[in-house]
Amino acid sequence: MRTTIYSFGLAILFISVSCTQDSGSEHLWEDAEKSIQFQYDPFFKKNPKSISDLVQKNGNTCFVSGEDPNFQIQLCISKEGISEFLQIFSAWKDSALVSEFGSVLSDGSEYRIGTYPFSEIKKKVEGSKFALIGDRQLKSLIAREVVWDRARFNLKNHFKTFSIFFLSNGTSFLVVSPSEGSEIYLGISFNATDLQKEIQNLIRAKNQIGSENCLTSLPIITEIFGETNSSIGRWIEIYNPNTFPICEEGLELSLFENKVSLPITTGFISPYETRIYAEDSASLERISLSGLKWGDLKKSGKIYLARVDQSFEFHLPGAGYLFGETYYSWKGTSFSHCETTSKFCMDPGENGTSTSASDFACDPNDFEIEELNPNGLLYKGIFQDDWKYLDLIYKGRKICDPSSLRMRWGKNIFPIKSSNRIAEGEILSVGNLPFLLGNPLYSFSNIKSVAVIDIVSLSNSNGKEKVLWDGIFRTSKGIPTKIILEKTNGETVSICFRNGKPFLHPYTAADPDTNLTSYSGIEIFSENPRTSIGRTFCSKTEIPNKVYFSEVSWMGSYQGIEPISKDRFIEFASVTENSPDSAYLEIIQGNGSIVSILLPLEKEGLTLLSSGKAICFPQTEFWQDTSFSLPSSGSNLLRVFDPYTGEFWDEFSYSSSGPGINDTRNKIRKSAYSKLVSDVRVWSVSSYAGRPVRDPNCALTDAHPGILE
Known about the structure:
Elements: H1 8-25, H2 27-30, E1 36-40, E2 49-57, E3 60-68, E4 71-77, H3 82-93, E5 101-104, E6 110-116, H4 118-124, E7 128-132, E8 147-148, E9 163-167, E10 171-176, E11 185-191, H5 195-213, E12 220-225, E13 235-239, E14 246-247, E15 252-255, E16 258-261, E17 268-269, E18 274-278, E19 287-288, E20 302-307, E21 310-315, E22 322-323, E23 326-328, E24 344-345, H6 355-359, E25 367-373, E26 377-379, E27 382-384, E28 389-394, E29 405-409, E30 412-415, E31 427-431, E32 442-444, E33 456-460, E34 465-469, E35 482-483, E36 486-487, E37 495-498, E38 501-504, H7 522-527, E39 547-553, E40 557-559, E41 562-564, E42 569-574, E43 582-588, E44 594-600, E45 607-610, E46 623-624, E47 636-641, E48 648-654, E49 661-663, E50 668-670, E51 672-677, E52 680-685, E53 701-702
Helix pairs in contact: 1-5
């Protein structure tokens, strides 16, 4: 039996008072002058997101931690320390201990950040005069009477969140607990005058509104776990499914004639709040519940949540919760369903009955890759090899929440964490891209060891998985042996996709009509013109065009008497003013073996391919493949094609006798060069005419990569 008493008049009063209070209490959060800000809004009506991340706020880079947006703290830092801050933040995520780093906040005041084991945290918070505790393990570090914990504030989910200690010397110490499976804490110390008082006043004011305007309705039981010998302990999950707060006073659990009153905390349960009530020995974040006969949760029957003449009933499973080696929680009509290798199949502290999350969950089949970058990006002249990313384009009809998904790239699995729902045609960016912090459709993932040949897939919590990229680059000419994506100056090329088919990203420029400046992306696009992070760009020109071989150094260089085989290169020239985006090269040796290379072409001018920086031409830039080489003996053939139509463009055949000269006796090497003679293109021996810059020790090497005679 389930009945509910509503008070329409009180509901109207609550809405009126809370709205009035919200506008005033938000001043602390919205004050742009403050580098440290705290927010508490237990009446927030939507599902919040747990967060500990760097974001962009009003032009500042800020560290935000808590439940966004109803309970969180924000520290905005100066630009000078962003890189070091991010390194330590990444170390915390990787469970690594690193040395402290000190810099200044956005208001010029000092801070220090580091990662610490529990023993170091304990030393640092000695002598605290007050603490706001979001992790019950930290509650024991200072005297109980100066601690505010879950009994003094409301959270939507019953998870660990940040803690902040106020030391007697005036220093504040923010502590973010370890992620699951880790024992390393993140700690940030700073000075913030009156922050303790502001936090206390804001929490008191909000709690008073909730206590004075809560309704004597009923929350519901949503999940239980009652296995005796589990390390996680036994617990009951309670949820408020309403848009108004529910009064705590008078609520009691009844289990086989054994009645236990729910402990009073703030005086109310927030709208859409989930709570865990558990036995004292439970390892979860919890509110301790004494007096209940926890063993009765394994019996057949019902547990009731009641208040006077109202009652909510929840059917027990009538059996244990251990099946094989996995513990399962009970949802009232079935045990939890998980696609996991964990010993515990359950989600305590996070409401699973709210239909909003499942209704808006994204389907992996509705996504396609729009752009893939497995190499990194150039930034301020330095190649960032860990700035790898994927752009996923959403093709679904309904607006959905991608945070229910996870991405697999090679051997790595990355959860998707987006602060916004996604609509048809929008781009979700996933990767390590600090300049996208704050973009609502960006999910940070510290992608490290991935390659272009690694498989990419997207899956949901129900085990549905879609392979987005099988790691095989198919062209009309076949599958290339190698794909060139990097230049010696750090420039990189992404792989674009259209209708599931890959091609090398064409040149582009930052579009002034986009919102790139809102997350400082302009600099990235100017240095990486063959990428388009976070926006739909990938399209391929259909204008007929082709290139031809203009110079080939199949033997390399001589630096003095030392042969430099790595200086071998191929130069391509476009038939028209603008080149195609890419070419398919075949190197066919006399024995019939073929190496095929897909390479980018310059938008204008000549394109050079080599194994890296040239010794004899140190200022010349090449598209590079460290294993690139050309055979120097036998009869060999180079052929170049349009990779998408298969159209034949040009060929060049050579042997040890030329074209080009490889005089090992006199230490002379000259490349083969193509030029027009009476409107006929012929191959001859190159001569060096002062360009490009050549090492003075390479006087017997004649070539001019990147220069037309």
